[in-house]
Amino acid sequence: MTSTDVTKEAEDSGPGGYAAARLRLLTERARSGPPRRTALAGLTDDWLSGLFTAAGAPPRGVCLIAVGGYGRGELSPRSDLDLLLLHDGSDDKAVAALADRLWYPVWDLGLALDHSVRTPAQARKTAGEDLKVQLGLLDARHLAGDLGLTAALRTTVLADWRNQAPGRLPELQELCAERAERQGELQYLLEPDLKEARGGLRDATALRAVAASWLADAPREGLADARRRLLDVRDALHLATGRATDRLALQEQDQVAAELGLLDADTLLRQVYEAARVISYAGDVTWREVGRVLRARSARPRLRALLGGGGKPVAERSPLAEGVVEQDGEVVLARTARPERDPVLPLRAAAAAAQAGLPLSPHAVRRLATSVRPLPARWPAEAREQLVTLLGSGRPTVEVWEALEAEGLITRLLPDWERVRCRPQRNAVHLWTVDRHLIETAVRASGFTRRVHRPDLLLIAALLHDIGKGWPGDHSLVGETIARDVAARIGFDRADGSVLATLVRHHLLLVETATRRDLDDPATVRSVAEAVGTEHTLELLHALTEADALATGPAAWSSWRGSLVADLVKRVSAVLAGGRLEEPEAAAPTAEQERLAVEAFRTGQPVLALRTQTEPPTGRERASDAWHAAVLERAADPEPLGVELLIAVPDQAGVLPAVAGVLAMHRLTVRTAELRSLPLPDGVEGSVLLLDWRVAAEYGSLPQATRLRADLVRTLDGTLDVAGRLTERDAAYPRRRGVEPPPPRVTVAPAASRLATVIEVRAQDAPGLLFRLGRALERAGVRVRSAHVSTLGANAVDAFYVTGGEGAPLPGDEAAAAVRELEESLRA
């Protein structure tokens, strides 16, 4: 039976005919989704129009209007009929009689009815007082009667909405936020409300209202399809339950999935979550744009006054990273950015945005998604470092990650992500889907980066620890294999990949053993020690365990569980310490290093050499003479991964802070650094300090080696005030409200060396950090025997081997004083 046949049957048979035709339409398997909703709305339109004219000609100046969801033609099987009987006020008695002829047949059929009878003036007044009424009228659609009256109301309501939008849109945004607070986020709930939860149908309607205001518009890509999908699920829910409900309860999900022809309830939830994610992201972008437009409007009169009534201010663009700038409170691509030639740009932009606590512009993300070329099969080191920086940025990581996901960039970077994306977790302990839980774990882990020697491994393990949940079988075992493959792809060496695989394989080991086994049984501790293998891996696993639990939900972690895990870790650490290998001997200096050392001693001045580095050196390369052979004035490669900087300086006080300060002044980022004292050849008294650094230009340009050397000479002889220069530069740039990093941590590593005291510093990487630390050690009166500095993402992890004046390890009180001096420098 066609829709015309159904409508004719309804017209011919009155209310009974409408009910039969409606039932037949709802039970037709061949017709579902938008066609059924459109047919149901058309059927209902014809029936109500028939009721409107059933008693002859209706009064003049009266019309029947569908509003809200019915006005949009979105009638689900159990939807309310939202109706407005509009009249000009000339014959109230006739209008009341007409209302009775309309409303009672609807009630008699058991249909839900939301009705009102108003004049145009009353409708406008009510809309001005009640935002929900005004939103419903924005979708007003004529059904019967005086078409001119309907058209006039629509025109007036739209004009009112656009004129009042600057005041009403913030009210609408507040309503959406309050509803989200009550109902939660649709994309994570196991029993979501399809209409009221954040990312649901109400939010989709709110975005239509924003677009109608002409102030801003939502991203259109995928939005209509997401709305359709949620409406299809609601239709199936109404048919499965026979009730007007929007709550997708657990016990009804299998039936709803079957109604939609889906494999199972998990497939259903995943589709719901994907749709909700599209709507939520569109809402975030839209409300941000509304705020920007409203701020610009409020500032415009003041700007006109400042500009003398003419001219248009140019938006400021502040550089954040190579090819990435901040503009109007968003992170956008620089005008010189070339995504098609810079495959690391998406990760660099995302890391810069997260570190600054700013959103990524949707236009920038879309451009990256459509034009950037893929990363090579094995990522360059910069890409890996930018990913680590993004993951270590704390709470802002979530919004930036969602922006990348909205354009499909995450699954292009990490194809294994597709299997966990929007995957539900049917466990009341879990608050999030699998993919959001992984990001939440990274957020939590970013607060523990000061506790571990390798923050980068901790953050990547947090991202991957549940990656196996997208496959059949034990997700820890499956995840171990995936983690090893991903580690190789993103550029970790085999040893680091093995550690990551171990962390993923055993990410539940500590908490399960601590809560389910007897810790006084030696076999318990021994088994954990054998599984973990090393103290460093145990340290990482402890932090990952806590981050994972905290990211799961409040029921997954407690002080009791934490104390049990800590006790287990302490016992296992003691076992592992007993089997510790001897420290390897330092590598012999290369011929190039010896040559520089002799030259520095002969001239009494610093000597340095630069070499472009496009890939991280292997251990064999770093020990070879060929690696140090070329001395370059500037890097030839416009996009180098980094530059190796070798500096030889006659042994004297203040070398470390001097070199670090000069590099910071020239905007060179220190990625790794080593400092050691190099004895001169036999027969020559004295020693030379050798600094072997890997640096990169902050914004792509490298200084000349001659300038670096000249500034280093002036710094060492006291004629260049590096500290003052750095202070002036910092004062010239206002501080951005970015991510709040975890507090720094300075500790003395117990029994780390028999020859020196080892002081470890874990802090947020920042320009001039190493300079401040070096000066603090100088003030503490200690001698730096060697330094091992590395920057892992946004985290600086530095170890200083220091001695007293006699060359012996520091006594306890002197070590404590040095720690306090370093802590004070980090607080400054």
Automatic annotation (TrEMBL):
SUPFAM superfamilies: ACT-like (SSF55021), HD-domain/PDEase-like (SSF109604), Nucleotidyltransferase (SSF81301), Nucleotidyltransferase substrate binding subunit/domain (SSF81593). Pfam families: ACT, GlnD_UR_UTase, HD. Uridylyltransferase (UTase) activity is inhibited by glutamine, while glutamine activates uridylyl-removing (UR) activity. GO terms for molecular function: nucleotidyltransferase activity. Modifies, by uridylylation and deuridylylation, the PII regulatory proteins (GlnB and homologs), in response to the nitrogen status of the cell that GlnD senses through the glutamine level. Under low glutamine levels, catalyzes the conversion of the PII proteins and UTP to PII-UMP and PPi, while under higher glutamine levels, GlnD hydrolyzes PII-UMP to PII and UMP (deuridylylation). Thus, controls uridylylation state and activity of the PII proteins, and plays an important role in the regulation of nitrogen metabolism. Belongs to the GlnD family. Has four distinct domains: an N-terminal nucleotidyltransferase (NT) domain responsible for UTase activity, a central HD domain that encodes UR activity, and two C-terminal ACT domains that seem to have a role in glutamine sensing. Residues 1-319 are annotated as: Uridylyltransferase. The gene is glnD. Coiled coil: none annotated. The keyword Iron does not apply. It comes from the Bacteria. This is Bifunctional uridylyltransferase/uridylyl-removing enzyme. PROSITE patterns: ACT (PS51671), HD (PS51831). Transmembrane segments: none annotated. SMART domains: HDc. CDD domains: ACT_ACR-UUR-like_2, HDc. Residues 644-727, 758-828 form the ACT domain.
